[in-house]
Amino acid sequence: MMMKKRVFIAAIFLIMTFFVMRGGLDVLKNSEDMNERPGHKEISGTIKNGETFFDVFKKYGLNVTELFKIRQASANIHRLREVYPGQPYKIIIDRNNAVNTFSYWINDDSVLNITRTETGFSAEKKDIEYEKRTLHLGGLIKDNLISSVGNGKENLLLALELSDVFAWDIDFNTDIRNGDIFKMVVEGLYLDGEFRKYGNILSAEFVNNGEAYKAYRFEHNGRSDYYDPAGKSLRKAFLKAPLSFRRISSGFSSGRFHPVLKIYRPHHGLDYAAPAGTPVSAIGDGTVVFTGVKGQYGNLVIVRHPNGYRTYYGHLSKIEKNIKKGVKVQQGQIIAAVGSTGLATGPHLHYEVRIKNRPINPLSVKIPPQNFIPKKLRIAFQRVRRDMDTRLASISYPMLASADKSKGVKTEDIKRTEL
Ligand SMILES: [Zn+2]
């Protein structure tokens, strides 16, 4: 009985997810049609592969001379020669087929509006104003983060955002386990009642191998950042790993093609087995003190950080052109690519941390104190935290009995929050 109930609940969740996701995908598919209204007609559609506005004008028998005027009017705002397949447009014409208004959705954030004036046309670019809703998502990890959050571009981007939030604590390439739990409170951006894309992650929880990590988005000094339950910034001097999950994953649309990275600790450093060419990032801000070939390390980059730390990146196939001795690097910046130069049996990154030239365990680096939320904002932060904790606690995720436990589940919150 229990089992049946669980499967039933899981099925309901999956159906809900399906509808919410479908809503997201269909938004831009304005059917191409001509709406007759008294005195004028509306032409709307989306740009097809290889199509230009010249083609659109010819298709509907519009005056091409007007298109040239429209292009001129918008030249300083957006070049209409550069249009992208799938982007919607709307043209309103009068009885004589003359263009009254012309709108083209440049991207997810802005629309180009052109209107007829007494002398010709005038153009303006407007921000698309989304309706924000608060969404609750949760799921279990199966195989990898990306496929577990869900299919499609928006879910991929959301998974990468989540990996960024916890990039100082969790290495999403090598740390995560099947059965890990993720929960998110995230902005959903809607147009005309339809889901379009995700906005900011407002709060997140990730249970990795039994250990729970939490993040709360909070703004002060005009800057939004993520904090732990104690109000301590999640940013640290060192990232959890020199191989960025985002850098590696953003090229993959499906988790199936995501390379499985492995970590080994055969000696005083860490070895990351990864495909040759995988981008290597600086673990923290610092100054390059060595690049070149050095014995068993093969191609090597050494970066000096504050507090006496040095990080070593060895066996590289390639060092970025701008990475030279004396150059400053930023945390997360790509400095090189994985290879198998020097003493290496296969492509892997040899990563080492030294202090006063003595190797130490990279995973136990003592990190300088982090930034706390200022005292006067603690109460405001605690209010946000309490609200988010209630939301996170309410998020359910598919049961283990479900046929497809890997997909995230999204529910929509009725109450809209201003944060
Ligand atoms: Zn090694």
How many strands, what sense, and barrel or not for the largest sheet?
Answer: 8 strands, antiparallel
Q: Between the first and last Cα atoms, what is the distance in angstroms?
A: 43 Å
Number of helical stretches of at least 4 residues = 7
Bound molecules: zinc ion
CATH C-level class of the largest domain is Alpha Beta
Q: Output the radius of gyration.
A: 26 Å
User: What is the CATH topology classification name of the largest domain?
Assistant: Nuclear Transport Factor 2, Chain: A
Envelope shape = globular
Describe the structure.
- The protein is of the alpha+beta class and 419 residues long.
- It folds into three domains: 1-27 and 132-235 and 370-419, Nuclear Transport Factor 2, Chain: A, CATH 3.10.450.350; 33-127, Nuclear Transport Factor 2, Chain: A, CATH 3.10.450.350; 237-369, Distorted Sandwich (Glucose Permease (Domain IIA)).
- The chain is built from seven helices and 23 strands.
- Strands 12, 13, 15, 16, 17, 19, 21 and 22 form an eight-stranded antiparallel sheet that branches. A six-stranded antiparallel sheet has the order 1-2-3-4-5-6, with helices on one face.
- A hairpin with a 2-residue loop joins strand 10 and strand 11.
- The protein starts with a helix and ends in a 7-residue tail after the last strand.
- Zinc ion binds next to loops.
